[in-house]
Amino acid sequence: MIKAFVFDAYGTLYDVQSVADVTERAFPGHGEIITQIWRMKQLEYSWLRSLMNDYRDFWTVTREALTYTLGVLGLTPTATLFDDMAEAYNRLTPYPDAVPALIGLSGARRAILSNGSPQMLDTLVGGSALRDLIESTISVDEKRVFKPDPRAYELVEERLGVKPHEVVFVSSNGFDIAGAKRFGFRVARIVRVPQGALTQEISEQRSNTAGALRPVTLYKALRTQEEALGYAPDFVVSSLADLSRLAVAT
After folding, report:
1. Annotated catalytic, 8?
2. Buried b vs exposed e over 52-86: b needs ≥16 C-beta within 10 Å?
């Protein structure tokens, strides 16, 4: 029996691409590439710090990734501009399907398990329309390790008192889906970027730009698809709203 739906935050409930307006205003003409490199390095640094046993919270990681991104692009912000750009991760826009989906799951426990630091999540969730729809916002900071390390997923049982098989973990991120499935959760993948649409996008860009891909397209190829690691999700949905039917069926 499903007792809880636990959601990833970044890229699942909240749109990480919504920082693009801020990055474009900061450095006109560079917004797209800043946005994509920043997110990829943010994730990469979380994994590196876990593997090196050199934990820093996600706010530090986010700022380190932004420092790298601007440096590699040869862009020099003022301290104020840098802080304003970093703060965009605390003001991400929820996906349109997030609120109705959470309302539709009102009969089940609803929580977030995120790499975000407690302060980041408090600001992000507390300042959005999701604040009254989430029972518990759980940060991996308590374990001082990032997903997909199994210790991060242990927090769900510790905080909610539910066993892994009683949880549907929902994510759009391939690494997180693989990690959650390996841990023992039932996993639902929300397909934010359908593979067929991505394949067509890649084909069109290669035809029209002598093989070059836009940064956002490269990001989609690297971070939005299912990983080939042998840990397939139990359920695949095209909208978070589909989860309410899943709750009834299971």
Report:
1. yes
2. eeebebbbebbbbbbebbbeeeeeebeeebbeebb
Catalytic residue (one of 8, 97, 141, 149): 8
45: domain CATH number?
1.10.150.240
Residue pLDDT, tens place only, 115-151: 999 999 999 999 999 999 999 999 999 999 999 999 9
Q: Which residues contact 119 (CB under 8 A, 6 or more apart)?
A: 59
Which residues contact residue 17 at a Cβ distance below 8 angstroms, ignoring those fewer than 6 apart?
35, 216
Nearest Cα neighbor of 247 from 13, 5, 8 is 5
Query: Do 237 and 113 sit in the same domain of this protein?
Result: yes
Considering the domain architecture, whether residues 43 and 129 belong to the same structural domain is answered as no
pTM over 0.85: yes
Instruction: List helix spans (H) across 113-214.
Output: 118-126, 150-160, 174-183, 195-208
Q: 104 and 30 share a domain?
A: no
- Name the β-bridge partners of 168: 5, 186
Per the structure block, which two tokens stand in for 170?
Answer: 């929902």
**Chunked in runs of 10, what are the mean pLDDT values of the chain (250 residues)?**
96 98 98 98 98 98 98 98 98 97 94 98 97 97 98 98 97 98 98 93 86 90 95 96 78
Measured between alpha carbons, how far is 208 from 211 in angstroms, rounded to an integer? 8
Write the single-letter amino acid at 200: Q
- Intra-chain end-to-end CA distance of the chain, in Å: 7
DSSP type of residue 90 = G
Residue type, 155: L
